[in-house]
Amino acid sequence: MKQVADIRLTAAAHHAKSLSSAETHGIALFPHNRLLMHSEGLGWRNIYASLAVESPWQAVLPAIDHYCIAYCVGRSARVSRVLDGERTRTAELKPRLFGVVPTRMRSQWDLRGSPEILLIYLSAQLMEQTAGQVFQRDLGSIDMTPGLGFADGLLEQLALAVIGELRKGECGNPIYVDTLAHAMAARLLQGATDPAIGAKPAVATPARDLGGPALTRAVDYIEAALDRNLSIDRLAEIAGVSPLHFARAFRRQHGIAPHQFILARRIERAKQLLMNADRPLVEIALDTGFASQSHFSTAFKKIAGTTPMEFRRQA
């Protein structure tokens, strides 16, 4: 009992705020741009994303800590960029191409056109963690030269998955988004790492190292913290490995991804709580980690094949 209590206390102490628009350049919120959707308030810890139709704009963007990539979803734009100490670089940002807004560096931009742009900000902490755990490098030692108008098939699939979660709104899955963020960070760092200076991905810990106690600790934590905003970072920390390795090992052990396991456990917990006919649905939704009653009802019907109210009547 004491161990469960300690896990609950740890879960409460580790509840972290999400990355917000206030920590970004705020491009999607420029007056003449039309914001379509963004992740504000969705509980996304390591990533902030926005989708907007941009109008022509010129701006000097300040240096910020977080890493920003832009994915052109529709319609082309002519983009000119000036970095500190460099000449103007101009490129056509066509649909399916990426551009990068440099981190910790002031930059000047001139955008012509009306493209639909997905902006994804990855937290500095995530980038630093991935550089150390996956590439065994300090982030400051990696040349993160910001590209402009480049294609990347894997990065594109991850970006499209982010758009899919944005469209779900509060019905999306923050821990799945966290997994996408880690994969994007690893992909960007892989492209920036120069093999000539010996940077190689870290050798993965054998799967057996995550057997028994390590995965049991993570599962125990999930059970004790189903009402909280669980993250891959925290689960991997409890298991003692990197987030990417944890996700792979967890799937090998349980046959499903961590976010799928968490959703299944939340639904099972909700079924138990629904046995109490006096318990309000909104209370059950919050106690099982859902953002709202509507989010809970949608997820419950998808997994259980019936609505919470129908399940309660049949129980």
Could you characterize what this model shows?
- The chain has a six-stranded antiparallel beta sheet with strand order 1-2-9-4-7-10. The chain has a four-stranded antiparallel beta sheet with strand order 3-8-5-6, with no helix packed on it.
- It is built from eleven helices and ten strands.
- Helix 6 packs across helix 7.
- The protein is α+β, with helices and mostly antiparallel strands.
- Mean pLDDT is 84; it is low at 1-15 and 194-209.
List the helices and strands and how they pair.
Elements: H1 2-13, E1 34-38, E2 47-53, E3 57-61, E4 67-74, E5 77-83, E6 89-93, E7 98-101, E8 107-113, E9 116-122, H2 124-135, E10 148-150, H3 153-168, H4 174-192, H5 213-224, H6 232-239, H7 243-254, H8 258-274, H9 281-287, H10 293-304, H11 308-314
Antiparallel strand pairs: 1-2, 2-9, 3-8, 4-7, 4-9, 5-6, 5-8, 7-10
Helix pairs in contact: 2-4, 3-4, 5-6, 6-7, 9-10
